[in-house]
Structures are given as structure tokens and as C-alpha cells.
Amino acid sequence: MIVGVSRQEHMHRRYFPACPVDGPIEPPVPFGHMCSTGAVPQKCASCDHLFEGECTRNIDDVGGYLHLDHGPCGVDGPTDPVVFENEFITSKVEIPRKCSKCRFLAVAPIYGFHCTKDSDKWGDFHRSLDWGSWRPDRIYIQLQLPKVTTKALSEFAFNEDKVAFIEEHRRINPGVSLEEALADYVHFRTVIEQGG
Question: ∠3-5-10 over CA atoms, to 5°?
Fold first, then answer.
């Protein structure tokens, strides 16, 4: 079997925290970046977080761009996360359950798993996968580069284990002061308490 490749451990890292902006998705607004052409959702076109066809919301906390919010796709089904598998691919990421059997699901080296529904409308800025009302129990927060971050740091912060957080932080970032590790713990806790 060929193993799917992704920059994220979980697909939902590109989607959460969910977009808090209310606004219309339609009509799509024409958009282009470099050689890519298509459209973006109406509410995204005028948003300060739109950047090169992706979203910068919470970029400092999650360590990367997020997908734009295309709203519900219109295909019914459960949206809890599952690992996709067929005769050619076993994914390293989780996708919404309803997407795993959907004819619009596609995978490409650059985009990873993506939705081709309404591709005539969105062009190269494909529709995001529809996570519906499902939300992860937690997101994984990233330290600012060049500091190293592990999944364990987020786990310790969510569990309010300050001592373990600081020990892990200093293990993976040798030379960082106790004060700086503590400040990062406080930052993680702030993000968590604010609904991240």
C-alpha cells in the first residue's frame, strides 16, 4: 500500500479553530494568486485574514494557514474523523467520515485531501472539507519558530500540568530559560481558555 503524505498529523489542524466570522458564502468572488485562478467565499474576500487563498486566523497559535470556510457542502452524513483507506492509499490524516465515501473527495500531492464539489465555481481554490458540527476536543498549539513544539506540550497545557509542560519545553528547547518556558505555558493556557 502507498501511504498518504501530509504536513499535518491530523487533517482537522487545517480547519480549527473554526472561522468565527458570519457572512455569506455565495456568490463566490473571483480570486487569483500566481498561476492559480478561481474564487473564494464572499465573506473571505473582504476579510483581513485572507492571504494567497488561505486563512491566517490563529496562525501564530496553530503554526500555519487554515482553509477558508466554504460552509456546508450539502452532502448529508456524519462528520466525525476517520482515517481514509482504499486499495492504493492509507492516509496519515483524518477526514470527515462522510467525505471518506464521497465521490467528490480527491487527493493530490500539493493539496492533500480536498473536495472537488463545485469545482467549476471555486477553481484552484477548492472547497474545504465539511466538518459539520464536529469539533476536536483540543487543537495543537505551536510555539513561535525557532522553538520546537511537540504534541505533548499541548496535552500538558490542556491538562493544566505546568510542571510537565515546563520539563518538556526545556527538554526539546535546550537553553530556554525557566521564565520563557513559563511564559509559553501561560500563552498556551490563554489560547485554550479563549476557546482555541
Answer: 105
